[in-house]
Amino acid sequence: MLAMAEWCTTCRPLAAPGRRAATAEQAREMKIFGPEVPCSAEAPPLDRLVALTGRDPGWRS
Predict the structure, then answer these.
(1) 17 lies in some domain
(2) 57 within domain boundaries
(3) Which domain of life is it from (predicted)?
(4) What is the tens place of the pLDDT at every residue in 4-23?
(5) Interatomic CA distance for residues 52 and 35, integer angstroms
(6) Whose CB has fewer CB within 10 Å in the chain, the N or C terminal residue?
(7) Can you spell out the DSSP letters for 4-61?
């Protein structure tokens, strides 16, 4: 399990709006993220971030 400091360092680039796309593309190259899922520009920020990672923000278990 990642220590909090490691997690913050790892996830901080996703929190910065100007760096999300670059970080997501790097993660796709590493096979961590899937292709971006379409999401409304008016969707909540978390839904847009989830879609950027290749996950469906509307999925429910």
Answers:
(1) yes
(2) no
(3) Bacteria
(4) 555 455 555 555 666 777 88
(5) 8
(6) C
(7) HHHHHHHHHHHHSGGGHHHHHHHHHHTTSS-SPPP--TTS-HHHHHHHHTT--TT---
